[in-house]
Task: structure prediction
Amino acid sequence: MLTKRIIPCLDIKDGRTVKGVNFLELRDAGDPVALGEMYAQQGADELVFLDISATNEKRKTFVKLVREIAAHVNIPFTVGGGISSIEDVAPLLEAGADKVSINSAAVSNPQLIDDLAKAFGSQFVVLAIDARKVNNQWTVHTHGGSRPTEKKLFTWAKEGQSRGAGEILFTSMDHDGTKSGFAVDPLEKLNQLLQIPVIASGGAGNMSHFLEAFVIGKADAALAATLFHFGEIKIPDLKAYLSNHHLPIRKTI
Result:
């Protein structure tokens, strides 16, 4: 069985790590370079960097900051925000990214998934989906969660897989920052529908929530920010807890 992955997320705005609730009320959470280095040292399995204002500000991801973070981590590093073409990817690769996460641009131009998968391989492409329940349906939102779309979570995830995405990063906007637990029901359904890994995001409040995401939601990885940024949970402690509950976890060095 593949080991379950623990992934801290650096949401970046104006060069700083930020965190909010339901994608709103952002507060400063620290220096992304220092945080990334700390998480690598603590034994995080991967690191995700999301430039959350790049799309709304109609600019590209901060390549310089990506390079600085990459120089301080020795774990797989996924970068997202403002990526809308193959041409946007080369500078990020050169700066040290191992994967790219695409979201809004893929919704408006699904062919981007095909193009990136063909150019770099499916394992390089993470399709991030931000969704919340609207009229009892999980509805996809773009532009940092600010714009609802006609797309629905499950059909869009299946289309993303068919176009070549190597992973789905599903964030429940309803759970984001609430510390009420991951959205395990849609996670479980995604696992049933897809053959590619699903990363759970949004809602972690304690260690048992990670266990629920893996055991009930069948997630392949769990991503969190607030708990890690503000020291409420240390990654080695979380891994020990999950291992004690008989989950396959990569040991902390």
Q: What stands out?
A: The radius of gyration is 16 Å.
